[in-house]
From TrEMBL, chains A, B:
This is Transcriptional regulator, LacI family. One of its GO terms (molecular function) is transcription cis-regulatory region binding. It comes from the Bacteria. CDD domains: HTH_LacI (cd01392), PBP1_LacI_sugar_binding-like (cd06267). Keywords: DNA-binding, Repressor, Transcription, Transcription regulation. The lineage of its organism: Bacteria, Bacillati, Bacillota, Clostridia, Peptostreptococcales. SMART domains: HTH_LACI. InterPro entries: HTH_LacI, LacI/GalR-like_sensor, Lambda_DNA-bd_dom_sf, Peripla_BP_I. Residues 3-58 form the HTH lacI-type domain.
DNA sequence: CTGAAAGCGCTAACAC
DNA sequence: GTGTTAGCGCTTTCAG
C-alpha cells in the first residue's frame, strides 16, 4: 500500500513499463543491470504489486468462486480442500460461498462473484433444484459443476461420481454376503444422484434375481437425524437384514437407532453407507461404505475450469469418477 | 462483461457520474425520472457493475482472507461457516486458504492476499509457531487472530476460547464424579492453548487436594491416531480411571484403543474430550466434552475485523469465549 | 533495450 | 439535478 510501480520506476530511473515487464517476467529485453536495480529497489521498498489494478486491465483476477451448500456438511471440506489445493498450485485463490441449498442465495452469490470478476465458478447445485439451472442469459462466467449433475447453459465441465456404479457396488456387496431383504434409505429422489444410486441398487437386485419391492425404498434427506428416525419408524413393520444408506450420515443415524432397539450391527443388521466421510472409519462399528473421491472431485473441477480458462478449451469436459467399495466392520455374512 | 457504466450513461443520455450515483444509492439529488430510466436500462442490458474497477478507486475490495491450517480438520468448517455468514451479512466475501500449519505457506498466502488488496485477514496461526508472529514491518493489513493466541504487530483483535476454564471444567467434572487418577492426553505443549488447558487441569486437581503428577500428562498431537497410540502405549503402566483429552479426535482414538483392550467406556474409564466437533454426539458412546464455540469464533472474528475496518476502531478488541461442559455418555461416577 | 501514451471501469471533488 | 475532469495502479501497443 502506498508504494506503487511508478515509485519504483522513479527510484530506478526507468519507466513504469520497464518495471512492469520485470515483474511479469517479460524481461527478455531488459539489461541485467536494470533488472537487478529494479529488483533490489522492490525489495528495499517492500513493493507489493497491486493485482486489482492488474486485473482491471488484464480482465483476469486469478480468483475462482466455490459455491457449495454448506462447508459444515462433512462431504464438503474434502472437496473444498481439493479445490483449494489445485487452485493454489495454479496460482489462483478461492472465494467460498455457502448457499444452504437455497436457490436464491445461489444466484445472489453468483452475482457477487461475477461482479468481483472471478475467472470462473465451481458449483454444487442445490439438491432441491431440478436438473435444470435456469440462469438463462443472465451470467456469462465459465462454470464447472461438481458432485450434483445439473445442466447449465454454457457450462465448461462436469465432475460427478458414477452413482449408478456406487449403488450397484453397495447392493452387490450385501447380496454377495447373502442378504436378500435390503432396505434402501435414500436421499431426496428428486436429484439424479439419488436416482442413479437407486438404479444401481435395482440392477444388482436383478442380477441376483431378487424382486424389487417399492416398499424397500424409503425416501428422506441426507441427515443423520433422518436415518435415525427412519429406522425407528420402520420398527419391524418391514423385515430386513441389511440397510443400504444414501450417505454415511444416514447410516450413522441408523446405527444409533438400531443400537437403541437392541439390534447389533453387523450381527443382526448389516449396513453400507455412502461417501466415506472422515468419521466413518472412526465410529463403532467402522462403517462399510462407498467412498466418494471428494478431494479429487474438487481438485479435478478446478483443474478443468482452469484448463478451460487458460487453454480456451471449447468442448465440455465431463468426468465421472468411480466410487470405491470400502469394506470395514458394519457388514457381515448372512 | 462488455457493458459498462459508460454504455448505460450513453443510452440514458446522462453522464457516468449520474449512473454511478444511482448504483451506489447516493442519489438524493437525482430526479425520479432519471433514476427510473437508468435503472430500467441497467436491467434491460443486464448491466453488472465491475467491482474491481470500483475497488481500484475506493481502495476497498470487500473481501477478507481466512487463513486456517486445514478445512478438513473438523474444527474449522464451523469456524469458517461462522466467518462466512458474518461476512456475507456485511457484504463481504471470503477467500480461504489452507496452510497446513506451515509457516512458509502462511506467509505466502498472506502475501497473495495483500496483493489482492483484501480489506483484512482472519488468521489461525500454526500451532507449531511460538507465540510471536514475526511479520516485522512486512505487511500492513488489518489482522484478527482466531483460536490460537498469538501476538502480531498491529493486530486488530483476538478471538480465543478460555482454555484455562475449559481445562478446569473438564477436570472438575471428572473429579466430581469421584475420579482421582485422571490422565491428561494433551496436544503439543508448545502452544498456549494446550498450556492453558493443562493449567486448568492443575487448578481443578488442587481444589480437590489431588497431587499433580507429571506422569499423568502425556504430550502428543491433536490427531485421533495419536490418541489411539497413546492409550495403547500406556497399557497398564499407569493406573487411571479417567481420561481428559486435548480434543475430541484424541478422545475418539482413545475410545477405540480402550475398546480393543476390552475396557468399557464409561464403565471402566470415563472420558472427556474437548471441542465438541460435529461427530462427537454421533459416536458411541456419545462423548462428554468441552464445547468450543467454533461458529461463534469465526463469526465474532469477522465481526471485529469489519468493525475495525469500517469504524476505524483503534483499540485491539480481545474476546475470550467461554467453553461449555457438555455432559453426554462417556463419563460415569467412579 | 527502453519509454510515451492510452486506457481498463469506476468514483470523487467541484463546478454549473 | 447533472456533468467535467482527473485519477486509482497497472499493462499494452508501438515507436525509437
Amino acid at each position: 500500500m502506498g508504494i506503487t510501480i511508478k515509485d519504483i520506476a522513479k527510484f530506478a530511473g526507468v519507466s513504469a513499463t520497464t518495471v512492469s515487464k520485470i515483474i511479469n517476467n517479460k524481461d527478455e529485453n531488459i539489461s541485467d543491470a536494470t533488472r537487478q536495480r529494479v529488483l533490489d529497489l522492490m525489495k528495499e521498498y517492500n513493493y507489493v504489486p497491486n493485482k486489482i489494478a492488474k486485473s482491471l486491465v488484464t480482465k483476469k483476477t486469478n480468483t475462482i468462486g466455490l459455491v457449495i451448500p454448506d462447508i459444515r456438511n462433512p462431504f464438503f471440506p474434502e472437496l473444498a480442500r481439493g479445490a483449494e489445493d489445485r487452485a493454489n498450485e495454479k496460482g489462483y485463490n478461492i472465494i467460498f460461498c455457502n448457499t444452504d441449498d437455497d436457490a436464491e442465495k445461489e444466484e445472489k452469490y453468483i452475482n457477487m462473484l461475477v461482479e468481483k470478476m472471478v475467472d470462473g465458478i465451481v458449483f454444487t447445485a442445490s439438491s432441491r433444484r431440478g436438473s435444470e439451472f435456469n440462469k438463462g442469459n443472465k451470467f456469462s462466467v465459465p462454470i464447472v459443476v461438481v458432485d450434483r449433475d445439473i445442466d447449465i447453459e454454457g457450462i465448461k465441465g462436469k465432475v460427478t461420481v458414477d452413482n449408478f456404479i456406487g449403488g450397484y457396488q453397495g447392493t452387490k456387496h450385501l447380496l454377495d454376503l447373502g442378504h436378500r431383504e435390503i432396505l434402501f434409505l435414500s436421499g431426496p429422489l428428486k436429484s439424479k444422484t439419488s436416482i442413479n444410486r437407486l438404479e444401481g441398487y435395482k440392477k444388482a437386485l436383478k442380477e441376483f434375481n431378487v424382486d424389487f419391492d417399492e416398499e424397500y425404498v424409503i425416501e428422506g434427506n441426507y441427515k443423520s437425524q433422518w436415518g435415525y428416525e427412519a429406522v425407528k419408524n420402520i420398527g419391524n413393520k418391514i423385515k430386513y437384514t441389511a440397510l443400504f444408506c444414501g450417505n454415511d450420515l444416514i447410516a450413522i443415524g441408523a446405527i444409533k437407532a438400531l443400537k437403541e432397539m437392541k439390534l447389533k450391527v453387523p450381527d443382526d443388521v448389516s449396513i453400507v453407507g455412502f461417501d466415506d466421510i472422515y468419521m466413518s472409519s472412526l465410529i463403532d462399528p467402522e462403517l462399510t461404505t462407498i467412498r466418494q473421491p471428494n478431494y479429487e472431485m474438487g481438485y479435478k473441477a478446478i483443474d478443468i475450469l482452469i484448463d478451460a480458462l487458460e487453454n480456451k478449451e471449447k468442448n465440455v469436459k465431463k468426468i465421472d469418477l468411480i466410487p470405491q467399495l470400502i469394506i470395514r466392520k458394519s457388514t457381515l455374512k448372512r
